[in-house]
Write a structure and sequence with these properties.
Structural class: alpha+beta
Number of strands: 12
Largest sheet: 5 strands, antiparallel
Order of helices and strands: HHHHHHHHHHEEEEEEEEEHEHHHHEEHHH
Length: 629
């Protein structure tokens, strides 16, 4: 077998080269992401085959060198020729050891970088797929991949068996990659057929799974390099091929799982579990059991459950089946891909926003922030929409200096959420290829049309409700004209403000105008207050003068009337009236004086009414009632 090692390695190298070239060409001609990932695996297999072939040649040279030296040692009588150092006596072995010490780890590092880079680059593409142009016939490309399966399978199986039975470890990496490339070629052929029949999502799912496998292979290669640093080296003992991937070997030889499991079970239970009838039956019937499970899974696609908020349309071989929708509940259909069901959320209110591109974590305007300000953007992207300016339109086209005036239009940024519900699922799904995008374009067109017909300041302030109602009616009318089969439930206007780049200047102008209006209103208030106070003061003085005049006249009339009455009283009682007037005068004058009453004439006992003050004794002495003369 040592004689056939180099030819087998060379055959593997040529087959891997042909597979990588054909796979790369097909990947450039098709729109399949799976073909690109498969092309990367085929290219990695070619690199492994090239490196293993060169290492194979070095080991063959080392064995030939050893045989030659053994023959010379037997035939030569003088053995001093062979008493030199190993580097001098065995240059091929020394070259092979240096190759394994330095070049093999370097190649593994390069292989790791290629695997990680390809996994990252392809992962970004399959996670954000774009529309691609198909340059060739997909069935023809699938046939080429079928050819690659037969081209790689037999040499790969032969190399793996030889490596396992005869201990040719250097055949294992290339053989494993050839087997994996054969299976991946079949997978790529199936992906091309799926794209041809309009099931491009299958291609995306398969390509994402292969990217995960490629990333796992890079991780495995990294851990192998790390563990290689701590592996004990024993001179003369063949080390494991460092660039041989166990993951690739497992995927290329899935039957090896049974062997590994059998050894593990034998060791765990202490007897030959692998020789029991059940294990033997499971090993022989595994493929049939797997096919039965796949068949049951395929038949399960005949059962359809429509959720309460959904309706669905049934298509058979890409053609509509009837004009009625599948209502919520359980339904039967032919298995996939004969019958396909397309679900639509007809009972749910759906929303899109015109004028802005929301962030991934936004669930509405200002979802992440509580305060909305004009000078800060709150969306991923905001669009400037033209809006009319009636004030500028009514002004002259030139200003006082003869310069051209500003155009009668402004820019505004607005978030316009539109809520709709699918009314007719057949019209929504079959009248247009992309009804969601068409409805968004209609709403955007109607928003722009409405804005150029309204005033800027009216739209910014009191005209929002009227604008929202008008927009809802216009979008509904345009959607009905396109037979979209939807009901426009609500159109809102929120976050309406000038563009962020000019919002600060706009706020400064509006602030100055508001300050001016505030000062004018304050001056008018002060004027009204001063006028009212002056009027009130004048009226007060006038009223006081009138009341004083009326009081003086009334007092004079009262005094005159009183004097006339006194004359009449004196005329009627000339004796009594003067006495009465005298007594009244005496009473008034003595009202605030202290008074003493003497009860008995010529008596020394006196009653003092006011006990607070003491009366002097001289006032009480020699009191007597004067005698009449």
């Amino acid at each position: 077998m040592e004689r056939n090692l180099k030819p087998t390695g060379l055959v593997n190298l040529l087959i891997a080269l042909a597979a990588a070239g054909i796979g790369g060409y097909i990947a450039r001609q098709t729109a399949s992401y799976t073909d690109e990932v498969v092309g990367v695996f085929l290219g990695l297999g070619f690199l492994a085959a090239v490196f293993s072939y060169f290492q194979m040649r070095m080991e063959v040279r080392e064995k030939l060198e050893k045989l030659e030296l053994d023959e010379l040692a037997k035939s030569a009588r003088n053995t001093t020729l062979f008493e030199g150092t190993d580097a001098e006596a065995f240059p091929a072995r020394r070259a092979r050891e240096q190759f394994e010490k330095w070049l093999v780890p370097a190649f593994c590092i390069i292989l790791l970088a290629l695997q990680a880079g390809a996994a990252y680059w392809l992962g970004k593409q399959v996670l954000n797929p774009e529309a691609r142009e198909v340059r060739a016939s997909l069935p023809m490309m699938a046939a080429f991949f079928g050819f690659l399966f037969f081209l790689q399978f037999l040499p790969g199986r032969y190399s793996v068996n030889v490596a396992k039975l005869e201990g040719q470890r250097l055949l294992q990496p290339a053989g494993s990659y050839l087997l994996l490339g054969a299976y991946l070629s079949l997978l790529a052929a199936a992906g091309n057929i799926a794209i041809y029949f309009g099931h491009s999502k299958i291609d995306l799912f398969v390509s994402r799974a292969l990217c995960v496998i490629l990333a796992l292979a890079a991780v495995e290669n990294l851990f192998t390099l790390i563990l290689e640093l701590y592996r004990p080296r024993v001179r003369g003992q063949a080390a494991r091929v460092l660039y041989e991937s166990r993951l690739v070997g497992l995927l290329g030889q899935p039957e090896s799982v049974f062997t590994t499991a059998a050894h593990a079970l034998d060791y765990q239970f202490g007897f030959k579990v692998s020789e029991t009838w059940f294990y033997q039956f499971l090993q022989k019937a595994f493929v049939w059991l797997l096919l039965i499970q796949v068949g049951m899974l395929w038949l399960s696609t005949s059962f359809v459950f429509i959720e309460p908020e959904e309706q669905a349309l049934l298509e058979r071989c890409g053609k509509p089946v009837g004009d009625t929708a599948l209502n919520p509940g359980f339904h039967l259909k032919l298995p996939w891909p004969i019958d396909s069901v397309y679900r639509f959320q007809t009972h749910r209110v759906q929303t899109f926003t015109v004028g802005v591109v929301t962030k991934d974590d936004d669930h509405g305007a200002g979802a992440a922030e509580n305060t909305i300000v004009w000078t800060k953007s709150h969306y991923k992207e905001e669009f400037n929409l033209p809006v009319a300016n009636k004030e500028a339109d009514s002004a002259s086209n030139t200003n006082a200096a003869g310069e051209k005036a500003a155009p009668p239009a402004n820019l505004v940024t607005a978030s316009v959420p539109v809520q709709y519900q699918i009314r007719d699922i057949v019209a929504w799904a079959r009248n247009h290829a992309n009804p969601n995008e068409l409805l968004e374009r209609i709403a955007t067109r109607e928003v722009v049309r409405h804005l150029v017909s309204v005033d800027f300041f009216d739209f910014m302030s009191v005209g929002r409700q009227k604008a929202a109602e008008s927009l809802r009616a216009n979008i509904q009318k345009a959607a009905d004209a396109e037979a979209l089969g939807v009901n426009i439930l609500f159109v809102g206007l929120q976050d309406v403000h000038p563009p962020v780049t000019v919002a600060e200047a706009f706020e400064a102008v509006i602030g100055a105008e508001q300050t001016r209006e505030a000062k004018i209103l304050t001056a008018r208030g002060d004027s009204a207050k001063t006028t009212a106070l002056a009027t009130a003061e004048a009226q007060k003085v006038l009223d006081e003068a009138k009341s004083f005049s009326a009081r003086r006249v009334a007092e004079a009339e009262a005094v005159g009337g009183q004097f006339q009455n006194k004359l009449d009283a004196f005329a009627a009682a000339p004796t009594v009236y003067p006495q009465r007037v005298w007594l009244q005068t005496f009473a008034k004058s003595a009202a605030k004086s202290r008074k003493f009453i003497i009860g008995t004439p010529n008596a020394s006992e006196t009653m003092q009414l006011n006990l607070e003050d003491k009366v002097r004794a001289d006032l009480l002495e020699d009191l007597a009632i004067p005698q009449k003369k």
